[in-house]
Each structure stands twice: as C-alpha cells, then as structure tokens.
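dumping this here so i dont lose it
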C-alpha cells in the first residue's frame, strides 16, 4: 500500500492504531506531518521514502506518486498526490491541472483505494 504522506500526523498512538487495521506492506512517502523517526517507521515494517516515486502503469501511463503536488508536471505524466487534504486548489492562478489527482483520505472516503479504482476519467 502506498500512502502519500501525513499518515498519522506524527502521533505514535495514531500510527499504531492505523497500522494495526491495515493489511499488507505500507510504503510511506514522508509528508510534512510525518514526524516520527525513520528508525521508528522501519522498526514497524514501513518502507519510508522522502522523494516521489514514478512507475509505468498498464504499459502506457506514467504515474508519479508524491506528497506535495508536483509543479510543473512533465507532459504525459499523471501525479497522484497528497498534502492538500480537502482544501481545493485556488481557482485562479493554480498550477494544478487534470493530471493532478488528489488522493488525500479526506476526499477519498477515508479508505485505501486500489489504483484501478481511481476514476478512469482521471487516468485518461
């Protein structure tokens, strides 16, 4: 499971509660609220990354997972990001476009999403 940051808002009690109910291996892209030590995360089986991860999906889509939205975004790349929670980007002057997909739990029904469950119109 990829988590795009701000996993437990730096609280050990939240971290322990969440990791006890999630299944599978957790890969965490460190967010600005992930304040626990790398040693703590790794001791609990969490693989921690500080930089965005890019993959090719279904042999043609270039996806980059990040905590903060990536701006500017290279042409043809889709950015699945966190950080902005349920705050919409500003209507004027925003550099976020249709290839930026907010994956924060506040806008994703507070549950994990499978990559294939992300709305198809967002990935086309």
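and the seq i came up w/
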């Amino acid at each position: 499971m990829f988590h795009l940051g701000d996993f437990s808002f730096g609280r050990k009690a939240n971290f322990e509660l969440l990791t006890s109910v999630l299944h599978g291996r957790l890969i965490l892209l460190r967010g600005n609220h992930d304040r626990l030590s790398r040693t703590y995360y790794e001791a609990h089986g969490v693989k921690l990354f500080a930089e965005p991860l890019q993959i090719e999906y279904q042999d043609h889509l270039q996806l980059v997972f990040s905590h903060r939205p990536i701006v500017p975004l290279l042409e043809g790349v889709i950015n699945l990001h966190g950080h902005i929670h349920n705050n919409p980007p500003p209507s004027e002057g925003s550099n976020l476009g249709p290839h930026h997909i907010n994956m924060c739990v506040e806008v994703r029904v507070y549950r994990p999403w499978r990559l294939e469950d992300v709305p198809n119109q967002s990935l086309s």
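The chain has one domain: 2-114.
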